Amino acid sequence: FQSYMSDNIERFNKFNQPETIGSLSAKYNVSTRTFRKWIKPIEDQLNLHNHRIFTPAELKIIIEFLGEYSV
């Protein structure tokens, strides 16, 4: 039960902390240029041109598209 709870807390924290392209690209171990290429297919859902920090909803879209990064 403890492991289940810690896994859920970890997933919750992934979606609820502000992230930038730079911080996410570091978590996926790629350059920001590569990360931008990776998310290009979903950029219309992310509103990349109007802000620098991804919302929790946008983080969920990115993680569902690219898969989870390791903490």
- SSE string, helices as H and strands as E: HEHHHEH
Shape descriptor reads globular
Helix count, DSSP H or I runs of 4 or more residues: 5
Q: Which class do the helix and strand fractions yield?
A: mainly alpha
How far from one another are the termini? 21 Å
Largest sheet: 2 strands, antiparallel
| Average residue-wise pLDDT | 80
Q: What is the percentage of strand-forming residues?
A: 5-15%
Helical fraction equals: 55-70%
Radius of gyration: 13 Å
How many distinct beta strands?
2
Strand order of the largest sheet: 1-2
Regions with pLDDT < 50 over 5+ consecutive residues?
none
What does this structure look like?
- The protein has 71 residues and is mainly alpha-helical.
- It has helices at residues 2-16, 21-27, 32-39, 43-46, 56-66; strands at residues 19-20, 53-54.
- The mean pLDDT is 80.
- It has 5 helices and 2 strands; from the N terminus they run αβαααβα.
- The chain has a two-stranded antiparallel ribbon.
In brief:
This protein has 71 residues and is mainly α.
Blueprint (SSEs and pairs):
Layout: H1 2-16, E1 19-20, H2 21-27, H3 32-39, H4 43-46, E2 53-54, H5 56-66
Antiparallel strand pairs: 1-2
Helix pairs in contact: 2-3
Task: Write a concise keyword list for the protein shown above.
5 helices; 71 residues; globular; two-stranded antiparallel ribbon; mainly alpha
